[in-house]
Amino acid sequence: MIRSINPATGEVIETFEPLAENEIESRLNLAAETFIDYRRTSLAERAMKLLRAAEILEAERERFGRLMTTEMGKLFKAAVEEAQKCAWACRFYAENGERFLADEEVKTNATRSFIRYRPLGPILAIMPWNFPFWQVFRFAAPALMAGNVALLKHASCVPQCALAIEDLFRRAGFPEGVFQTLLIESSQVERVLRDRRVVAATLTGSDAAGASVASIAGREIKKTVLELGGSDPFIVMPSADLDEAVSVAVRARTINNGQSCIAAKRFIVHERIYDEFERRFVAAMERLKVGDPLDPATDVGPLATRDQLETVAAQVERAISAGARLLTGGHRLAGPGFFYAPTVLADIPEDAPARREEVFGPVAMLFRARDADEAIRLANETDFGLGSSAWTRDEREQERFIEELEAGLVFINGMVASDPRLPFGGVKRSGYGRELGAFGIREFVNIKTVWIRTEAAELTRTE
User: Fold this and answer.
1) Pairing of the two strands 112-119 and 122-126
2) pLDDT at 462
3) pTM, full prediction
4) 431: β partners
5) Which of 105, 133, 237, 437 is the residue whose CA sits 20 to 30 A from 163?
6) Is 197 helix (H, G, I), strand (E, B) or coil?
7) pLDDT above 90 (res 412)
């Protein structure tokens, strides 16, 4: 049984039966048959439909926002902004897709040689709950613009969002079968991934889930793109604007109730300013209002599921047991819903698991660094490598962080964020491949080499 539960109250909103085997088979057939015709549509036609999707997202952003908030607990304002960001991605690929996929001429000894980008077929997208619309659209907009068709296996706790997205694409004019939501359980994913009609897959989730999908896809010789979370460092050096750094640090740790792959999680502060940063940061975290995500005055809403709440609580308890110093928070909040107090830990021992794992909730860890060398060492000691942020006015330090931080994204004096114009992805156990930008639309295409020699050209050369 797939259940939609309001994390602010713990109440079941609606339940859904997973698709039966014959229903899965029917949808796979539809995807394969639809692709035959859809890949022949013009880029202009696909762009028109994406623009229509953007219009629907913008016109109904509050309805979609309320759906996201009630199903996974994000702040209503943030949910509305998420719908608008999805519209941005649709417009971006509608306006730039033809340029990204245009033939690229290459001079060789042929009459003409060039690179052509062609769609692959049905792509399976295994998506998480934390950004229930954005995660889907940042895959779907470029994939559909490129001429692929999509099969969405969304997180089991956001079935209403998954169905709403399918309906949105249908209303935007995409043919039936171009985008389908599969309400299936985790145990059914392998059967779909192995099916010969599915040609590739993308997953955003844990490194364990990524390893499982990559292993299956590897045995089937299928392309994958994996975005597997992070334990992002947030470095603050003496030359930084401390007021701004502290303000952004709080926002960067508690965005989406602390449930973001690119949320800052480890705050590495130069020893000259550490004490002042700690004082201000803890005070700011303690001022945050935790409560109803539909209330405009709320700063931090609930965690998405009871399991997520229990996981975060256990991670904090293990860190404290290992010797970490608790500066504030560190407990669940009384009452209904899955609420956890904004928490700050310091002096985390080197052998504590929390020092290297991803804590997916409003929990910050503070570290003291002697200099830039130690800051870089601390930043890179985790197995993850998704985002990173460094705060310094020193240009030499900026260049060092850009060069030496082991991450797919480096933001200087700013909060890490995804942007349709820029490639998004990580290194190490944060995964491989890229979403967004020109790189994102080319992940799921056949990069086809074309070499042509004409008889007329051959005669000219021999005369």
Assistant:
1) unpaired
2) 47
3) 0.95
4) 227
5) 437
6) coil
7) yes
Question: Both tokens of residue 390?
Answer: 């460094």
Arithmetic mean of pLDDT, 32-58: 98
Active-site position among 71, 227, 278, 357:
227
Question: Which residues, 6+ apart, have CB-to-CB distance to 124 below 8 Å?
Answer: 151, 153, 192, 193, 198, 200, 201, 202
Active site residue 261: yes
Which domains, from first to last, does the chain contain? 2-228+430-450 (3.40.605.10), 232-412 (3.40.309.10)
- 273 within 8 A of 236, measured Cβ to Cβ: yes
Query: What secondary structure, in 3-state letters, does 291-333 show?
Result: CCCCCCCCCECCCCCHHHHHHHHHHHHHHHHCCCEEEECCCEC
Per the annotation, the verdict on 86 as an active-site residue is: no
Q: List the 149-153 sheet strands across, edge first.
A: 179-181, 149-153, 122-126, 200-204, 223-227, 431-432
Of 442, 431, 280, 297, the residue nearest 358 (C-alpha): 431
Q: How far apart are CA 39 and CA 149, in angstroms?
A: 9
Half-sphere exposure of 451 (CA within 13 A, CB side): 4
What confidence tens digit (pLDDT) does each residue in 238-286 have?
999 999 999 999 999 999 999 999 999 999 999 999 999 999 999 999 9
Output the six-digit token pair for 315: 């991670």
Contact 320, 101 (CB under 8 A): no
Question: Could you tell me what percentage of the chain is helix, strand and coil, using 3-state DSSP and rounding each to the nearest 5?
Answer: 45, 20, 35
Whose tokens are 């020699």? That residue is 453
CB 356 within 8 A of CB 231: yes
CB atoms inside a 10 Å sphere around CB 402: 13
Q: According to DSSP H, which parts of 357-443 are helical?
A: 372-380, 395-404, 437-441
- C-beta neighbour count of 221 within 10 angstroms: 6
3-state secondary structure of 270: strand
Q: Are 316 and 297 in contact (CB under 8 A)?
A: no
State yes or no: pLDDT of 344 exceeds 80.
Answer: yes
Query: Does residue 85 contact residue 136 with C-beta atoms inside 8 Å?
Result: no
Instruction: Give the residue carrying structure tokens 């990173």.
Output: 388
Question: What distance in Å separates the CA atoms of residue 277 and residue 126, rounded to the nearest whole number?
Answer: 39
CA 244 to chain centre: 26
3-state DSSP assignment of residue 191: helix
Cα 68 from Cα 268, distance rounded (Å)? 33
Distance of CA 189 to the CA centre of its chain: 20
Q: Give the relative orientation of helices 76-100 and 61-72 as an angle to the nearest 10 degrees.
A: 120
Q: Is the CB of residue 39 less than 8 Å from the CB of residue 205?
A: no
DSSP-derived letter for residue 175 is P
Q: Report residue 230 CA to chain centroid gap.
A: 10
